[in-house]
Amino acid sequence: MSLNPPDRSIIKRAVAGVAAGLILAVAAPMGAAAQAQVQAPAAVAGLPDFTAIVAETEGSVVNIRTTEAVPVRRSPLGPDADPSDLFRWFFGPDFMPPGMQQPKPPRGQQRTPTPPAERTVPRGIGSGFIISDDGYILTNNHVVDKSNGIFVTMTDGKEYKAKVIGKDARTDIALIKIDAKGLKPLPIGDSNTLKKGQWVLAIGSPFGLDSTVTAGIVSAINRDTGDYLPFIQTDVAVNPGNSGGPLINLQGQVVGINSQIVSRSGGFMGISLAIPIDEVMRVVEQLKAHGKVTRGRIGVQITEVADDVAKALGLEKAHGALVSSVEPEGPAAKAGVRAGDVIIGFNGQKIEHMSDLPRLVGGTRPGTEAEVQVWRKGKVVDLKAKVAELSDEPAAPQADSGESAASTDMLGLKVGPLTSGDKNATGVEVLESDGAAAQSGIEAGDVILRVNDVDITSPEQYARVVKGLNKSRPAVLLVQRGDQSQWVIVKPE
Fold first, then answer.
1. Angstrom distances, CA of residue 420 to CA of 326, 330, 400, 447
2. Active-site residue among 191, 205, 243, 272?
3. List 85, 142, 278, 434, catalytic entry
4. Cα 24 vs. chain centroid, distance in angstroms?
5. Taking burial as the number of CB atoms within 10 A of a residue's CB, which of 87, 112, 285, 374 is the most buried?
6. Taking the mean position of all CA atoms in its chain, how far away is CA 459?
7. Among this protein's residues, is 319 annotated catalytic?
């Protein structure tokens, strides 16, 4: 017996009826409010469209490739090869096998050393962007440093040879120039207005892939990773080759130069750092005018102010830069700054973090008389220092000292007069350290310069000061070890 094929129209009507019944069954228990909630469309936040910004800016971003010269090692197997060349090939150009002597030149002539042959090889790639219509381009110093050739390629494929106008290793900024006119510079924005969560773009040549655009948000601002730069932290994808390229806001303005990535793999891992454009342009002015950057210095070594030290010194909060040593005869010493002071202001600007001070001092023109505000013995002291020029030579640190003897005190210290022989030195030398003092890190040979707000001048005076301490409160001691001074918290026993 054969079966006739089913009527498809009947099946469709049956399915539709079942579906309708299920919908009615589910919807029936719902109240009016619940039904309205189901029917209301979900609100979707709009995302920015970057196409117009990219079209307007990418033509001003360039690819930079560099070359370097490397020595060429002659083959020791050539027809004119010296037998000793075989040894020098493996052991270096100055190697001479035992028993062999360098051939003497003809009488009356001197041997002229043959300069080593060199060849030019690719060194690296990076990015940059145009800042003027006559060919000035900004990039990172590490992109062009130690190169013997710099080549700039535009988005239209044109290539130019560039020359270095100036570079600054401390801020990793380089200014280069190509021989071109009528270029379109990128507008410079204001990095001080950046906020966390703000959208930004990076354009560059990661791994040599020209005009690559990536986007993300500002993750943090004023990220301290160095003496002179408060970095912009973003989650914009930045990889090798992006260095020197612009960080751009939604107005199409440059707000930073992509410079570094924080990575364990060498590639992007979600954290990239850009140099704020405000800092960059201050450096560019000097590079354009002088080819280098001149910075100020006052001759102090500083550390962060810990919270417990701030409380012990009477500061309302932990801020400023704690002076650990002062360069003898330096600008700060002549102004009256002492080890143990906390510098809380410079030229009218507050020092919130230790790293603020080097940036403010470094940005001050040498020869300028600057106002230095310090916290000393529970009050603010205003000083004036003539800023000197920062050189590459490290500043000589200060050497201090002091005087007399006693038995172990409530801090766990036994002190005596200084053995330095300097009659003008103050303080006392630690002979033995035990108990609370030893636990705080004080060692024999350290010098106690101050206890709380009292300068120590002799062992006898030190003993009187310690005897009068409140045992229920920690004491803060200014301790010098070698050329460095720091505040140490010690709880009396």
1. 18, 22, 9, 11
2. 243
3. 142
4. 65
5. 374
6. 44
7. no
CA pair distance 250, 194, nearest whole angstrom: 11
Consecutive 10-residue averages of pLDDT for the chain (493 residues): 46 44 42 48 70 96 91 59 59 60 61 64 91 97 93 95 94 95 96 95 94 96 75 95 96 96 85 94 92 91 87 90 88 92 94 88 91 93 93 42 52 83 74 85 88 84 83 84 84 80
243 is catalytic: yes
**Does residue 172 carry a catalytic annotation?**
yes
Cβ–Cβ under 8 Å, residues 364 and 387: yes
Question: Going by C-beta distance under 8 Å and a sequence separation of 6 or more, which residues neighbour residue 50?
Answer: 201, 213, 215
Q: Considering 60, 127, 147, 172, which one is annotated as catalytic?
A: 172
| Amino acid letter, 213 | V
Q: Are 225 and 233 within 8 A, CB to CB?
A: no
Q: Domains of the chain, with CATH numbers? A: 191-290 (2.40.10.10), 296-389 (2.30.42.10), 413-490 (2.30.42.10)
Q: How many residues does the chain have?
A: 493
